[in-house]
Specification:
Helix 5 runs parallel beside helix 6, helix 13 crosses helix 18 and helix 17 runs antiparallel to helix 18. The longest helix has 53 residues. By secondary structure, this protein is mainly α. A five-stranded parallel β-sheet has the order 3-2-1-4-5, sandwiched between helices. Strand 1, helix 2 and strand 2 form a beta-alpha-beta unit.
């Protein structure tokens, strides 16, 4: 028992703030509430993180993301210690771990950030925790702070402002912007300040000082419960963790998140005000052309409201000569896309639980008869397609856990409707495992969009794996960095090595089919063939919608007819 608990009595509030995402002290209403309810009775507060290997963030994750998460946890512990507190880190199933901690510390109240997307594991976990908390007499309170505004049918929430119907939320970005503008005039609430040291009950003679410490190594993360190798994401070991070539594009933690916000947004008002996402470069080989704040937003090291108002402040400070960009391409637009994606995930899962992230029963996804070819999928994952631009993107993903959004567009189109005709679900699953910024709502939305399965239907617009970036990076510097076996090729052939004469290939030390693969498909042929397949799939979808509409109309008509005699009979009986 900790020293802090020894002085408590039955009337003392003993609070626990359970960090899941939202790994920050700034703009954290759940943490602030936990501090507030302990203040009157001078009770202790226990900030807790449970390393749950079955949660979305860990079930499918590369060594890079596992390391990034541990960096976030370590940084959070440091921030809390600077405030006279600390982070208590446990491992295992929250349904088993939390009751043990409640009993050990005499916890009476738990606060946490809500998961509003309806991600299946989070829903089951939170329902289970509420149930076991009720049995233990512990009060659980959740707070919505993952998005700019709440998603659901609550005060200020998006669903609440469309009449409370989850199937009535906007399905286009422009209509979503319209909805946002109708809520408090489009104003976004200010972020809450981080609590000070004076607001935390101070630890004294903590008997748990050597217990519940942050994990130091990714291999300390336990194996997911009840899962085989085939059911989880990338499988790695200690040697993979020590591979110096695997270096995340950013390191984790709130401290670095705020520093990144300062250096990329606050310190560059003109750049921030004129930012247009489509005009950024996806072939930079030194400094990224975007903010790279997405990994911090995905784990909540950075509050979206904090980011929103930092952009707003920078925009106000920008030169009057700057041509200021607007949503959806501006930096504010990127945060709006994030809320929109989260809202759609919330809507999909509210209509059909667990449907977001899959084709079946997903109200926002068109059924497309994708093929399933493990060899093609593996070649794409490994960056062995024979198309240098595609392979370079996949190499950066594997090495840094990140790719520019245009690179993501290219590889997603290539896997699905463009070339390989493999299901977007397979691509989303791979990205979920490899990206530092893997996000349940955003990742699946992007794959629906890029495969033309939802939200974007211009399937005849296909990214060329050759021409798309050739005009932007003529020398192929990006390819030379990420596919070094091709570095010796002249610029003329760097995007299409199969067109190079044998003498050129020999001079560059390249043997196609040996140290670099031949193209696994003929892009010119399969892209046209896939457009025909997609056209047929769309026609089938329209026919299905007509049939479904006819069934509903027939059912309504039948219902009306069957109810008519009853109405007449009821009227006659009344007249009598």
């Amino acid at each position: 028992m900790s020293a802090a608990l020894k002085s408590t009595d039955q009337d003392t509030v003993v609070a626990m703030h359970w960090f899941r995402k939202g790994l920050r002290v700034h703009d954290n209403p759940a943490l602030l509430h936990a501090l507030a309810i302990t203040k009157d009775t001078s009770g202790p507060i226990y900030p807790v993180y449970i390393v749950d290997p079955n949660c979305y963030q860990l079930l499918k994750c590369s060594v890079l993301r596992a390391r990034f998460l541990l960096e976030c946890i370590s940084d959070l512990d440091k921030s809390l210690r600077e405030r006279g507190s600390r982070l208590y880190v446990a491992t295992g199933d929250p349904l088993e771990v939390l009751p043990e901690l409640w009993k050990e510390w005499g916890v009476t109240h738990v606060t946490h950030e809500a998961d509003e997307t309806g991600e299946p594991y989070a829903v089951a976990r939170d329902e289970g925790v509420r149930s076991v908390a009720k049995k233990n007499g512990v009060q659980v309170m959740e707070f919505r702070s993952e998005t700019l505004r709440p998603l659901g049918n609550v005060a200020g929430g998006y669903v609440a402002n469309v009449g409370g119907a989850v199937n009535s939320v906007p399905s286009t970005m422009s209509s979503f912007q319209g909805l946002l503008g109708r809520i408090d005039g489009g104003n976004i609430p200010l972020p809450l300040d981080a609590p000070t040291k004076e607001e935390f009950p101070q630890l004294s003679d903590d008997d748990d000082s050597n217990k519940y410490l942050p994990l130091e190594h990714p291999c300390d993360i336990p194996w997911p419960r009840g899962m085989t190798k085939d059911e989880i994401g990338p499988v790695w070991n200690r040697s993979d963790c020590e591979d110096a070539s695997l270096t995340g594009i950013v390191k984790g933690g709130e401290t670095l998140a705020l520093a990144q916000l300062q250096s990329t947004v606050t310190a560059r008002p003109d750049w921030t005000a004129s930012f247009e996402k489509p005009k950024t470069s996806c072939t930079e080989v030194s400094t990224p052309s975007t903010t790279v704040l997405s990994p911090y937003l995905s784990l909540g090291c950075l509050s979206p409201r904090k980011a929103w108002h930092a952009v707003a402040d920078a925009n106000r400070k920008a030169s009057s000569k700057v041509n200021k960009s607007k949503p959806p391409v501006s930096l504010h637009g990127q945060l709006l896309w994030r809320d929109f994606n989260n809202l759609i995930a919330h809507s999909a899962n509210a209509q059909s639980p667990g449907s977001w992230g899959r084709m079946q029963d997903n109200p926002y996804c068109r059924n497309v008869p994708w093929s399933s070819d493990p060899k093609l999928l593996k070649a794409w994952k490994d960056g062995k397609t024979g198309f240098p631009w595609i392979d370079a993107c996949m190499a950066q993903l594997r090495t840094e856990g990140w790719i520019h959004h245009l690179g993501r567009h290219a590889v997603a189109c290539f896997l699905t409707r463009g070339d390989l005709w493999q299901s977007w679900e397979m691509g989303a699953d791979h990205f979920e495992g490899e990206l530092l910024d893997a996000d349940y709502a955003l990742n699946n939305f992007n794959w629906l969009w890029l495969s033309c399965s939802g939200f974007f239907y211009q399937y005849f617009r296909c990214y060329s794996p050759v021409a798309f970036q050739k005009k932007n990076d003529v020398n192929g510097n990006y390819i030379r960095k990420w596919v070094p076996e091709l570095a010796g090729l002249p610029a003329k052939y760097i995007y299409e090595p199969w067109k190079a004469p044998s003498s050129v290939l020999n001079a560059a030390g390249i043997k196609l089919g040996d140290n670099y693969p031949n193209p696994i498909v003929d892009h010119a042929f399969v892209s046209k063939e896939n457009m025909s397949k997609m056209s047929l799939a769309y026609d089938m979808h329209k026919d299905g919608e007509k049939q479904e509409g006819s069934k509903k109309a027939a059912a309504t008509s039948s219902k009306n007819k069957s109810s008519e005699p009853a109405k007449k009979k009821q009227k006659q009986m009344t007249l009598k």
